[in-house]
Amino acid sequence: MTLQIPFDNSYGRLPERFYVRQAAVPVRAPGLIKVNRALAAELGIDAEALESPAGLAVLAGNRVPEGADPLAQAYAGHQFGGWNPQLGDGRAILLGEVVDRAGRRRDIQLKGAGRTAFSRMGDGRAWVGPVIREYLVSEAMHAMGVPTTRALAAVTTGETILREQGPLPGAVLTRVASSHIRVGTFQYFAARGDLEAVEMLADHVRKRHYPGAESALELLEAVVAAQARLIADWMGLGFIHGVMNTDNCHVGGETIDYGPCAFMDTYQAEKVFSSIDHGGRYAYDAQPGIAAWNLAQFATCLLPLIDEDRDRSVALATEAVHRFPPLYEAAFLAKFRAKMGLSTEEEDDWSLALDLMQAMEDGRADFTNAYRALSAGKAQDWFTDRAPFEAWRPRYEARLARQGGADRALMDRTNPAVVPRNHQVEAAIAAAASGDLAPFERLLAVVTDPFAEPPAGFELPPAEGEEVFRTFCGT
Question: Hey, which residues are catalytic here?
Answer without folding.
Answer: 247
